Records
---
Amino acid sequence: MSNLLDLVLNNPLLLAEAALNGLLLGGVLALLALGLNLIFGVLDIVWIVYVDLAMLSMYLIYFTVQVYGWPLLAGAAAGIGLGVLLGIGVHLLIITPILTSPPVNQLLATGGLLFFIQSLATFLWTTDHRSVRLTLPTIEVAGMFVSFARLIAFVLAVVVMVGLYLFLTRTYIGTAIRAVSQDRGAMALMGANPQRIYIVTSAVGGALAGVAAALLIIQYSVHPHFGAAFGPITFMICVLGGLGNMFGAFVASFIMSEIISIGGVVWSTEMGYVIAFALFIVLMFIRPGGIFAKKQ
Amino acid sequence: MLELAGVSAGYGHFTALWDVALRVSAGEAVAVVGPNGAGKTTLLRVISGVIAPRTGTLSFEGAALTGRPAHEIVAHGIAHVPEGRRLFPALTVADNLRMGAFLPAARAHYAESLARVFGLFPVLKDRRAQRAGSLSGGEQQMLAIGRALMSRPKLILLDEPSMGLAPVMVLRLFDLIRLVRAEGYTILVVEQNVRQVLKLVDRAYLLEVGRIKMEGRADELSEQDFVRKAYVGL
């Protein structure tokens, strides 16, 4: 704690910069968490493989932009398109055949896919770290230095989340998705083909992974274990916010990203993660249903 | 209108319905009564396609519906108000009704259906911006029936509409179901409240341990006898 106190007293600007970076990181994490949570809400299945799907989109964007010279926007569109296809593909090929199996089997099946994708990526593309080299400036805001790529990623993440909110609240199919997440069986009695709703949900979830991929590749390099780096934190955010609770996931994203970012400046990046995971374990004892769960 | 012949159904190793034959004509109100666990809910689930029958046939207005999934059966004009209402509690009353009109054919008449539902249940209009979970039990049952009406059905299946309601509300609810009936809907209702439901319907079936034990016109059946049979199981 003395480090933190020291920083507050002697270098408040550095702390403010860490907080700002945490906020910006939280935007992209929230996008991933909302995608994972959306699918969980409707299908009651945690796609453990979710961030690895985003990783595949990151590779696609890397290859199209860095190797084949596509404009970044075209590469990003391709990455989002791949996300949609992967979302639908995972649902049709992995989930549909085991939809009535016990949840643990479904979890294991998407977990198996995770290891398959990791191994395949290592085999095809080696363990090299690959990044899209953008010459984006670092900008100064009131004495704090912020990467422009991070700022852009945050703004776009917020725009996409507003879009997701409008989709879920203003459109017919979006309202049906919320309805299914509240009562899976009753929506079929309204004449909705459940499989159609599942496919739309998986496609939207996949698209969110694709958008997150585009926003991550301008900040981080991609490698076969990218999913292992961001997957656990994404899952943790969803559990912390309450699985299926979209608002909870949104808030939890920023709590976690702030802990990681500020912890990283005060101690070290690794310590930031240690604190985040330790807090998660403690909160699971205090509030196992997530921070916004109603008391039992 | 609706015809079931030789229908058996169950869950896993358990058989809940044995060789059930049942018929509902257009414009009729029919009740299925019987003690707890007689298979009444299973019967409605088979009709609405929530579960597929093991044997037997199901037809509606001449169309064979045996084994069709629930979402297709709704499109044929059968709406199921399930046991426990199964509302979408976090959605508003208006959104619940909107979901009732999910089918394209129903969506095309959304405004007209909504006016009709609000005409029948004015309280839903007042509460349309409220979350369904915040309604009272009686209001929730009205919403469940209203949501079913939004699909523009010909036949409405009601599963224990009086369940969990205060006695005074039960009487009101039966009056409301009479109103729904007067609008020209055909009704098949499952009820434990035998005395009340027999005043509402034209005909009734007595279901016991998965088999139809009696059937007849509601006014012809000796009410006392029927009640005794339904509850005591003799």
---
Amino acid sequence: MIAIGVQAEAFDPGVELTRLEALGGGGVASFTGLVRGDGGLVEMMLEHHPGMTEKAMRAVAEEAARRWPLLGIVLIHRYGPLVPGDRIVFVGTASAHRAAALEACAFLIDWLKTAAPFWKRERFADGTVHWVEAKAEDDAAAARWGG
Amino acid sequence: MAIEMLYFAWVREKIGVEGERVDPPATVATVTDLIDWLAARGGGHAEAFEDPARLRAAVDQHFAPLDTAIAGAREIAIFPPVTGG
């Protein structure tokens, strides 16, 4: 089962975990990404390429399914204006055993950061606005998985 | 051959439009050529495309290096490196 969500609406990790638990495996792993309020951030605007986002996320999920024996993958990424504490991204994996679920979950979030067409614009309490720059460590995190 | 251009993040902001239809001459063979050709218009295009090292592209909705040939492409998106997750 591969489920991809590209949405403005909030999501409920509990609901997604329950879907993954229902697949009959022995292990479910997940990662939830949240908006941090560092430096007086008041809004994070997520922009994306609507024509290709879901395809790009599905390609990342299919790559994980090739590498690990997974029963299910859920990937959800939000777009639009978010505030500190909001959930941005959810990665969930189900497998017969923990290693595949945990490793695939780490792989998925590392690859999502570099292979899905999203851009973040931050707005701060003092009125400054800037686009988040891509980080070399994100590229390195994705590259450690190879190919 | 008309190409649908799409711009995202600060590339979109500097150019001032989300997209446009362009019809480059046959001498424009790669995404880099296309960027140079559009930058020559000056204004927001020149500003957005000033430093190609900061730009990434998708050709027909697949990420593609800037030296990718554009023959037959219908849609080309130009944007900064992605920052999702």
